[in-house]
Structure formats: structure tokens, C-alpha cells
Amino acid sequence: MSLTVEEAGRTLADPDAYADEDRLHAAMALLRRERPVSWVEAPGYNPFWAITKHADVMEIERNHEVFLNAPRPLLTTAEWDEINRTRAEQGIALRTLVHMDDPDHRVVRAIGADWFRPKAMRGLEPRIKELARRYVDRMAILGDSCDFVRQVAVHYPLYVILSLLGLPESDFDRMLKLTQELFGGTDTDMRRGETAEETLEVLTDFFAYFQELTKARRARPTDDLASAIANAKVDGEPLNDYDTTSYYVIIATAGHDTTSSTISGGLRALIDNPDQLRRLRDEPELMPLAVDEMIRWVSPVKEFMRTATRDYELRDVKIRAGESVLLSYPSANRDEEVFDDPFRFDVGRDPNRHLAFGFGVHYCLGAALARIETRAFFEELLPRLESIELDGTPESTATTFVSGLKRLPIRYSLRG
Fold first, then answer.
1. Buried b / exposed e across 376-385, counting CB within 10 Å, b at 16+?
2. Which PANTHER family match (predicted)?
3. What is the mean pLDDT of residues 163-169?
4. Which CATH number fits the domain that encloses residue 166?
5. Cα separation, 253 vs 77, whole angstroms
6. 141, 206, 250, 272: least buried by Cβ within 10 Å?
7. Helix crossing, 196-219 with 241-272: angle to 10°?
8. What is the domain extent for residue 46?
9. pLDDT (tens digit, 9 = 90+) per residue, 23-67?
10. How far is CA 221 from CA 110, 167, 213, 230, 245, in A?
């Protein structure tokens, strides 16, 4: 049965749709074709405009003074919109870079910016390569099969982030559980519980952990990103506890789940497209292009929201002041007007103007790190890979924000 435009719009607010790529992409393709700026009224959600074309997402991101992150930076239910509004008024809300606008965004972003510049990334690269080798070795130790997501992909990038922050490896399990609970709040396998109170417990646990870390780094500063955040000052004053903890949370979570989703989704794409796997093995110089194609293909961040500060016309549609827009990155990254044969996975795609890292002032702080991690892993894996195939049915996380595969059963043969 074919979708109506209204049904396609509501699909973007359905967490289960993001675990069903065929259904999701069919809805997004319909919206791009028939109503790229579409008003959506979905049960349980405050209404919003769905923005599905590449050019329109860029236009809104470029106009960051008109379209603000606050007060609705992510698509959440109407219940959670109200909870977040109340907590923000009380000064106890999570306030990451995702939640901020200028001038706060510009000043707070600068605290961690140097840690993600090319010089810092070059310094971290030996550790990243060591970890990539460790996890390919782990695949060999596991034998000839594994659940790649659960046994490899979720571990490797989190260890990188722990190294950057300077956290002990003994805290790995705790961080892994918390990040999965935070981003998987609508997935029955990932969430801690079904009520808002149980979900808030995840944030409480994050805050408790990172407040202790802040206290320790202020008492004994060290040469790591955690110490830089703990001892940062804005206008001569240290960040308050909530802003400090929020900074840790965005580094620990966004730098983990997005990259693990890209690596696991990228591996599945190579399995599904053996000609591209052969090409990449025969032409390893294509790896930088292949990494960006994996990032486009997976688009692990599914959406961000913006709110209009004044009336604005987009494609002859008037978006009124106070109305929200949903920027659909998976849709923008399959836009037929921008990408030649967008549903073809092409390890040599060039140019590749994907928007998976956003655009403009909110461009992802960790984009270079994500590329280095993904490249290091596949540069370690592919020379040792003799064969690989699916060993069961892959499953994806049901969530409207950051999502990817939660299970990828594979069978393989490795050298060494």
C-alpha cells in the first residue's frame, strides 16, 4: 500500500521506522519528491516542519541566527519537550553544544576545539591505530564468527574517547551502558525503563560520574581533555556543574555511538556490496573516499531540530516564528539532485557532499576524529580479511536521534 504525504511525514517521528531502512527511505523519498517542506502532526509529538532536501537543510543551518537550537534541539515527545523546558527553567537541564546557540555556543565550543584540530589528532593517531589492531585481533580470537556490533564496534571508539578524556579503562563498562541507555531510550533492548523517571536516572548517573571527575581534575589537573573541560573558564569564571557535565556527556556519547554505527554500518555495506569490498581491497588509496561514503550511507545522526525566530519562507512555504523544523540528514544524504545514484554504495564516490556532520557553525566538533577512527579500523581489517558474510539477520536500533545497527552477526576468515 502506497504512503500518503502525511503518513510519510509521521514516519520521521516513528522510532521503529529507523530500524526499517526500506520503510524509512521510501517515506523520505516521497517527501523529497512531493513535499520537501512538510508539516507533520504525529501522535504524541508537538508538530514540526520536516525538511528533507539537501539544499534546504544547508540553508537552515547556514541561517543559524534565524533558526535556533533552543528550545527544541532534538525530536522528543511532547511529554519530554515539557520536561526539558521545565528543567531548563530550573537550571538543571542537560546543556550540551547541541542545545546552545551563539554567543554561548561559540565560547563553550572553543574549550574543546584545540583537542580536535589536526595536530591533536596526529598525536592521538598511534593510540587509535593500536586500538584498531586490538579489536581486529579480537575478531581473530573470537574465531570465525561474532556479533560485530556488540563484540567489536561498540568497544573500539569508546576506548578512543576514554583515551582522549583520560579516563581509566576500568570505567569502560559503565560508560558503555550509560551511552546506550541515553541514545536507545526508545528501543526495548537498550532503554533502562519505560517511564520518564527511569530515563532521567540515566542522566543522573552521568552527572554523578562526571561531577566526581570534575572535582578530581580541579584538585589535580592532568594533560587530557577531561582536565581542560574541568578547568575551563568563561568570562573568568569556571563552568557551572551542569555545563561542565554536559560537555563531558556530549564528548563521551556523540564521539562513541556515531562512530560505532558508522563502522558497523560500513562493514555491512561492504558485505552487501562485494564488488565494492573487492575494489577497496585492490585500491586501498580509496580509503578516505570510502570512509566518507560509509558516513553518508549510515548517517548515524538522524535529525536535529531548529526553531524559527521570525517568519521565514522556504520553497514558497511560510515557516512562522516559533515553529520548529526537523532537519533529516539521512534524507539529505540520499537527495537525487546532489548525489549520482544515491542508493548505490560507492567506495570511490567523489565528490561526496554529505551532511552527516551537519553544516555551518554547528558542524560536528569530532568529524576529523570519526574519520581517523573509521579509516584506521578498515586499514587494519581489510588486509587480513580473507572472507566475510552475514551469519544471521542484522538489527537496527529504534530511535529518532542517533541510531545504527545493534546486531550484526557475521562469519569470516582472517589472516594472522
1. bbbbbbbebb
2. BIOTIN BIOSYNTHESIS CYTOCHROME P450, P450, PUTATIVE (EUROFUNG)-RELATED
3. 88
4. 1.10.630.10
5. 21
6. 141
7. 110
8. 5-414
9. 999 999 999 999 999 999 999 999 999 999 999 999 999 999 999
10. 19, 13, 11, 9, 16
Q: How many folded domains does the chain comprise? A: 1
In this predicted structure, the answer to whether residue 159 has a pLDDT above a threshold of 70 is yes
Helix (H) or strand (E) holding 68: strand 67-68
Residue-level pLDDT at 185: 59
The mean predicted confidence, pLDDT, of the chain is 93
Which three three-digit cell numbers place residue 91? 537550571
Q: Tell me what the mean pLDDT of segment 314-331 comes to.
A: 98
Cβ–Cβ contacts within 10 Å for residue 415, how many? 8
Residue 385's nearest CA partner among 230, 261, 271 is 271
- pTM recorded for the entire structure: 0.94
Please give the full DSSP string across 198-233, using - where no structure is assigned: HHHHHHHHHHHHHHHHHHHHHHS--SSHHHHHHT-E
What values do phi and psi take at 340, rounded to 5?
-70, 120
